[in-house]
Amino acid sequence: MRIVATVFSLFLLAGMVSCNKDDNDFNYPEGTVGISKIVYFPAVAIKGEHLIILKQGDTYTDPGVTATLNGQPAQFTTSGTVNTAVPGVYNLTYESKNPEGYAASDWRSVVVIGNDVSANDFSGTYLRAATGVTSTWTKIANGVYQVENPGGAAVGAGYNTIVVNYTGNKIKMPKQFATDPSTGSAGIVSTTSETYNATATPPNYSWIFLAGGYGTGSRTFEKQ
After folding, report:
1. Residue 88 binned pLDDT confidence (cut-offs 50, 70, 90)
2. Which of 35, 60, 88, 159 has the fewest Cβ atoms within 10 angstroms?
C-alpha cells in the first residue's frame, strides 16, 4: 500500500509540474496571445488647425497629419483637394487603415475667400421669427464673420462660430469645432442649404444648422 501511494504521488507531482509549465509559458509567436491574433488600430491626427481660411490666389501648403500604427509611422490617404484660384469651402479627409481594414480618420476645412467680397458687410443683428431670438454677425476680416447663436435657439446661450462669405452673396459655416452651450464641451458644427438675400427688404438668410439637438429643419433670419 505504501509503494502504491508513493507511485500515485509521483504521477500527481509530474502532472502538476506539467500543468504549471503550460500555464506560465508566454513564449507565443509574435503578434499572438495564445490562439488569438493581436490587432493594432491606427491613429490619425492632423497637424495645425481644423479650419484654415485663405484669400483667393494664396498658396496652400497642407500642414499634414500624424498617422501611426502600433507606435510606428503608418501610411494614410487624403481625399479632397484645394484650389486657391477658385473661391469655396474645401473639405479634406485623412484616413489610415490597418491590415485588417479598420480605419481611423481626421479632417480639415480649407476656405478660399474670393476677391469679390471685399465690399460686402453682412454684420448686424438678425431675428429668427420662429423663436423671437436674435443672432449677431460680427465682421472680423473680408468675408469672415463671427456669428453668435447661429441656430437661433430659444433656450440657453448659443454657439459662437465662424461663418464665411466666400464669393458673391454665398455664405457657409465650414465644418468646425465649437463649444456646446449645454455641456461646455467642444462639438462639430456646420451648415448646409445656405442662402443669403442681400437685396431683399430687409436682407435675410436661411440655412440648416448641423449640431447636436438642433434637428434638420431650415432656419430663416431677417436683418434688424
Report:
1. very high
2. 35
The cell for 127 is 431675428
Question: pTM for the full model?
Answer: 0.82
pLDDT in tens, 28-50: 555 555 556 788 999 999 999 99
At 176, phi and psi to the nearest 5? -160, 165
Residue 139 in contact with residue 118, Cβ under 8 Å? no
Residue, of 20 and 6, whose pLDDT is higher: 20
Strands (E), the chain: 32-33, 36-37, 42-46, 51-55, 65-69, 72-73, 77-79, 88-97, 103-113, 124-128, 133-141, 144-148, 160-167, 170-172, 176-179, 186-197, 204-210, 218-223
- The answer to whether the CB of 117 falls within 8 A of the CB of 168 is yes
Residue type for 110, please? V
Q: Residue 177: beta bridge partners?
A: 188
Q: Whole-angstrom Cα distance, residue 50 to residue 175?
A: 8
